[in-house]
């Protein structure tokens, strides 16, 4: 694997944690930004209470317009008892939100929780991806597991459990493969320190065969894809990375970030968005 530095020309807009109309804090440890094409809005999950994984019913999802202007600071979560919502994925109708105890299925138009899928076996549920058939896949960071919620039966099962997952964090769904951004080999259970940096992995949905795309790329957090390359945040090092899967090459796009989290890309707007835990901001990057 090769790591190189490159420079890119981008236009970056910072949106802070203040909401001028009401003078309230909007973002509190924002964890993922997700674009919803049908409503032309972004959704941003907030852990709440700082970088906290506590089951304290103090998390929520913020909604912004396509330019990142906050239109609903506490769109959902406060009344629904969300603890620390993290990874999300959107379909035309639903927003799926991973929380500490399971996954919320939210009807976007009605702004209501339609279903909650409890996952009591999860140790640290983190991100979610959806397949073409509608199956949901959820990463368990401390458990080295991937859970699956079947689209037809709605049953939750452990789809894959393996030390090779190396603290699976961000997920991205390809047609027949699940792409996993791993944090790395943990020094001890329930810690975030690593003895080995994380790999970018490809898992065949049918055979569950695990293949590395890039090794020891960083403490990988979130992942999205733009054209043929993966864009991934390295939380601990404060970097935005681009990984070419064919060349197995890692390029450092941005440095000096403050604990960047899960990114998402709007093809319609040609904007890459991701929050920062360390600044309570969401960055919207217009790509050339």
TrEMBL record:
Top-level taxonomic group: Bacteria
InterPro entries: 6-blade_b-propeller_TolB-like
Protein name per UniProt: SMP-30/gluconolactonase/LRE family protein
Organism whose genome encodes this protein: Allotamlana fucoidanivorans
């Amino acid at each position: 694997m090769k790591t190189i530095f490159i420079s890119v020309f981008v236009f970056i807009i910072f949106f802070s944690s203040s909401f001028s109309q009401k003078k309230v804090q909007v973002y509190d440890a924002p964890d993922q930004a997700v674009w919803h094409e049908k409503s032309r809005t972004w959704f941003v999950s907030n852990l709440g209470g700082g970088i906290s994984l506590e089951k304290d019913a103090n998390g929520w999802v913020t909604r912004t317009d396509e330019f990142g202007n906050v239109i609903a600071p506490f769109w959902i979560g406060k009344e629904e008892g969300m603890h620390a919502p993290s990874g999300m994925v959107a379909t035309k109708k639903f927003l799926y939100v991973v929380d500490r105890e399971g996954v919320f299925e939210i009807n976007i138009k009605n702004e209501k929780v339609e279903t909650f899928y409890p996952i009591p076996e999860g140790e640290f549920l983190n991100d979610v991806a959806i397949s073409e058939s509608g199956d949901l896949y959820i990463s368990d960071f401390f458990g080295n597991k991937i859970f699956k919620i079947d689209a037809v039966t709605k049953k939750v099962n452990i789809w894959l459990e393996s030390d090779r997952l190396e603290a699976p964090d961000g997920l991205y769904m390809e047609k027949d493969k699940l792409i996993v951004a791993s944090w790395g080999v943990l020094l001890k259970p329930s810690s975030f320190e690593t003895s080995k940096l994380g790999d970018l992995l490809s898992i065949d949905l049918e055979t569950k065969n695990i293949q590395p795309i890039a090794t020891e790329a960083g403490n990988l957090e979130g992942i999205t894809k733009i054209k043929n390359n993966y864009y991934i945040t390295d939380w601990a090092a404060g970097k935005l990375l681009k990984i070419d899967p064919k060349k197995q090459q890692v390029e450092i796009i941005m440095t000096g970030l403050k604990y960047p989290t899960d990114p998402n890309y709007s093809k319609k707007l040609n904007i890459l968005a991701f929050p920062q835990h360390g600044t309570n901001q969401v960055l919207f990057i217009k790509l050339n």
